[in-house]
Amino acid sequence: MTKIQRFTVLSALFIFHTTSLFANFDFNSNCLKAYKSIFELKLGNARAYISTEKKQHPNNAIIPLLENYVDYFTLLTSESKSDFDRLKGNKSARLDQISDDDKNSPYYLYAQAEINLQWALIRGRFGEYFNAAMEVKKANSLLQENRKKFPDFQLNFKGLGLINAVLGNLPDGVLKTTLSTFGIKGNLQSGLDMFEKLADYLPKSSYDPFYDEVVFYYAYVLTDVAHSPSAYAKTMKYTKSIADTSLLKSYLQSYVCLKNAHNDEAIQILARKPEGGIYQPFPYLDYLEGIAHLNKLDLNASVYFNRFLQTNKGVNWVKDANLHLAWIALLKGDKSAYNSYANKAVNNGYLYNEKDKQAKNEASAPAPPVDLLKTRLLFDGGYLTRALQILADKKTLDYSSDKDKAEFNYRLGRVYDGLNKDDQAIVAYQETINQGKGLKYYFAANAAMQMGKVYERKKNVAKAREAFNTAISMKNHEYESSIESQAKAGLKRLGN
After folding, report:
1. DSSP letters along 185-243, please?
2. What are the tens digits of pLDDT across the range 250-268?
């Protein structure tokens, strides 16, 4: 029995009491095909299935939910501000359409929650944090109510898992402050547990068409929210059964590989990703491919960064892509080209995300020493032995500025940490803190946070707590909110 057949059986079970009870929320074959196409990033196909469904069953209230999915993934792949401004007006009309339908369906509150949650996630990318907070509040309320009314409706836990995970590890800012005012607090571990249970349960159930979506959010939470050491293993495990025709699978796998130092695997995944006009344009994948090649010091990475900049219509990663092109010029010994790209990193693009803010900071500062840049890139790619070889004959006094001295010890600490040389890592991290605690750079604060993790692994709770608190105590540096939220998560793990 296929996924669609299994889900049709489930739908039949929902409506057997009367012929009309759930008639207005019919996840039928057309809708399931549209949904499957969405999660393969075949958005043109999805629109065609939705159009067919509109002609055949114009009152089906699943239609506005599917249309919202299409908008969500359109914006996720394009990151275009003009698309965002054009599409965000669709939300209220869709909610109005659903609110007129069958209140006795488990999809009635669920669909409204999903639409609110999707727009909250998108708004966060464009800096609309207050509106995002209001939508998270609404989605949470709807899902909690739906959970009480339909405790066996497993899809409730997808949204609740995401809300718990994200809110449980949210950095300080407008979003966290606003949600705290409403008394909404998450629990990261609860969110992770909900996702794991769903990911294990769905393939054996009639809900299994929703598996890909659960894995999509679970991988995001593991990697970007929880910064979990098991992010790579779990993402690769749960994405394995997703069809190779899914471009979303290529994105998830390559992204988690890059974030977890499986660089060669990321290159292989991106090289064999499905292509063609059937798929939604996704320039960010070119950016990722550039990152992957540069991490192994392959200077042909410029091809991918340039392709990204040529095809990208979005607001994010422009500064960072130009910074990486500047680094390539520096590695080639072309100082003039370095200055040109660094200037673009400062002046082009936007400042919505942390990476672009950091790229502007770095491009505004003096060029980094080539050996430290090489070490940084190789470390990010997981090429730890090569990275250590570059720094093997170096010492702090070889560098003239306080920034470079702090970065040298930080890079050394990160490499030792990656090689499980804990004692050497702790010494280097402590040197970084001593050297860089008064500077605006992230080296000292992140060294303290990473040192806390080392002590945590060594079961030295007192030292781990001390290191995490040291990271939190440092202010007015790069990545402050991210480092602080990770340090606070560390304290929570230790029982604080």
Report:
1. ---HHHHHHHHHHHHHHGGGSTTGGGHHHHHHHHHHIIIIIS--TTHHHHHHHHHTTS-
2. 999 999 999 999 999 999 9
Question: 70 by DSSP, 3-state: which?
Answer: helix
Report residue 93: phi and psi, to 5°: -65, -40
3-state helix, strand, coil in the chain (%, to 5): 75, 0, 25
Collapsed DSSP state (helix, strand, coil) of residue 388 = helix
The C-alpha atoms of residue 26 and residue 42 are separated, in whole angstroms, by 22
Residue 412 contacts residue 428 (beta carbons within 8 Å): yes
Question: In this predicted model, what pLDDT tens digit does every residue of 110-157 receive, in sequence order?
Answer: 999 999 999 999 998 898 988 998 999 999 999 999 999 999 999 999
Residue with tokens 């069958």: 102
Q: Do 174 and 192 meet the contact criterion of CB atoms below 8 Å apart?
A: no
Nearest 10 degrees: Cα torsion 138, 140, 146, 149: -110
pLDDT tier, 168 (very low <50, low <70, confident <90, very high otherwise): confident
- The DSSP string of 329-373 is HHHHT-HHHHHHHHHHHHHSS--SSHHHHHHHHHHHSPPPPHHHH
Residues 6+ apart with CB under 8 A from 77: 41, 280, 281, 282, 284
Contacts for 372-375: CB closer than 8 Å, 24+ residues apart: 372/404, 372/407, 372/408, 372/411, 373/327, 373/330, 373/331, 374/297, 374/331, 375/411, 375/415
Report the pLDDT value the prediction gives residue 217, as an integer from 0 to 100: 96
Q: How far apart are CA 13 and CA 388, in angstroms?
A: 61
Q: What is the per-residue pLDDT for 13?
A: 37
**Structure tokens that stand for 152 in this block:** 């066996």
Residue 14's pLDDT band (boundaries 50, 70, 90)?
A: very low
CA distance 422 to 440: 26
Is 144 in contact with 167 (CB distance < 8 Å)? no
DSSP H helices, 3-80, are: 3-15, 29-38, 43-56, 62-78
Whole-model pTM over 0.70: yes
Phi-psi region of 303 (alpha: psi -120 to 50; beta: other; left: phi over 0): alpha
Tell me how far apart the alpha carbons of residues 301 and 386 are, in angstroms, rounded to a whole number.
19
